[in-house]
From TrEMBL:
Family annotation (InterPro entries): Aminoacid_DH-like_N_sf (IPR046346), NAD(P)-bd_dom_sf (IPR036291), THF_DH/CycHdrlase (IPR000672), THF_DH/CycHdrlase_cat_dom (IPR020630), THF_DH/CycHdrlase_CS (IPR020867), THF_DH/CycHdrlase_NAD-bd_dom (IPR020631)
HAMAP family for this protein: THF_DHG_CYH (MF_01576)
Keyword annotations of the record: Amino-acid biosynthesis, Histidine biosynthesis, Hydrolase, Methionine biosynthesis, Multifunctional enzyme, NADP, One-carbon metabolism, Oxidoreductase, Purine biosynthesis
Domain Tetrahydrofolate dehydrogenase/cyclohydrolase catalytic: 3-105
Organism the protein comes from: Loigolactobacillus backii
Catalytic reaction(s) noted: (6R)-5,10-methenyltetrahydrofolate + H2O = (6R)-10-formyltetrahydrofolate + H(+); (6R)-5,10-methylene-5,6,7,8-tetrahydrofolate + NADP(+) = (6R)-5,10-methenyltetrahydrofolate + NADPH
Protein name: Bifunctional protein FolD
Length: 267
């Protein structure tokens, strides 16, 4: 991957400072933690971050107004809205209101459509980070069985498209899936984004599989754990991502990469 520090320095020599606008609505503690991580990483690279913080009670109209201003502002290269949003706000209305050319999360239907057409432009950062990890560790995908647990717009759906684009045979499992372990035991690559702590145990994993844990769950004791029982799974899998320190930091890396890409106007 390109050296982002160098690329940002080159842009600055041309008088351009990459700028990300983050819209955050409400007081979700995890969202504020993620925002601070993004700000820290951006600062290290020399990327500007403009934060538009709205109250937990903000209306959908108020968020749409902020987005309309950011869409018009030529100094803003990339926009994202922290998820989840408070209940009174329709997530889909918000995602559709972001200019697709500035949509650094890749959640706009046009960007998701490009991804599903096999011609990706802006790609959701978590699944993009997973693909970079798989490529880095030379995990074969073509002709392999990949099972994705979860069908969210943030992870599951784009993850399935990215794996399919690399010629994996993809199954998407979700809360209505019956006999889940029969599917997971067939998976050469298992991506778990179920949102439930210790949802997948060692006996549900094919020996030698690659296991990607996208889960991020806080225990009552305040410990961060994934969706996979790491101790058990690591006895069976040939490769596994930890939580913390696995997919999460890669999400931020891919975000920074795509901010620079949007600033350069490269597809
Ligand atoms: N607009 C978006 N909202 C959300 C996204 C997203 O991609 N776009 N994904 C998640 C939050 N997220 C990125 O935004 C994110 C989650 C986790 C991490 C991370 O580095 N996690 C650390 C642990 C941090 C902790 O202690 O809590 C790790 O896994 O090591 C970064 C980004 C939901 N919302």
């Amino acid at each position: 991957m390109a050296d982002l520090t160098l690329e940002v320095a080159q842009l600055k020599q041309q008088g351009v400072v990459p700028c990300l606008a983050v819209v955050i609505v409400g007081d979700d503690p995890a969202s504020h933690v993620y925002l601070r991580s993004k700000q820290r990483r951006a600062k290290k690279l020399g990327i500007r971050v403009l934060v538009k913080a709205l109250a937990e009670t903000a209306t959908e109209a108020a968020v749409l107004k902020v987005l309309a201003e950011l869409n018009q502002d030529p100094k803003i290269n990339a926009i994202l809205v922290e998820m989840p949003l408070p209940k009174q706000i329709n997530q889909q209305h918000i995602l559709e209101a972001i200019n697709p050319a500035k949509d650094v999360d890749g959640f706009h239907p046009i960007n998701l459509g490009q991804l599903f057409a096999g011609t990706p432009r802006n790609i959701p950062n978590t699944p993009y980070g997973v693909m970079k990890l798989l490529a880095h560790y030379q995990i074969p995908l073509a002709g392999k069985n990949a099972v994705v647990i979860g069908r969210s717009v943030i992870v599951g759906r784009p993850m399935a498209a990215l794996l399919m684009n690399q010629n994996a045979t993809v199954t998407v499992a979700h809360s209505y899936t019956t006999n889940l372990s029969a599917l997971t035991k067939q998976a050469d690559v298992l991506v778990v984004a179920a949102g439930k702590a210790n949802f997948i145990h060692g006996d549900a994993i094919k020996p030698g599989a690659t296991v990607i844990d996208v889960g991020m769950n806080r225990t009552a004791a305040g410990k961060l754990v994934g969706d996979v029982s790491y101790q058990e799974a690591s006895q069976v899998a040939s490769a596994i991502t930890p939580v913390p320190g696995g997919v999460g930091p890669m999400t931020i890396t891919m975000l920074m990469y795509q901010i620079v890409k949007l600033t350069k106007g490269v597809a």
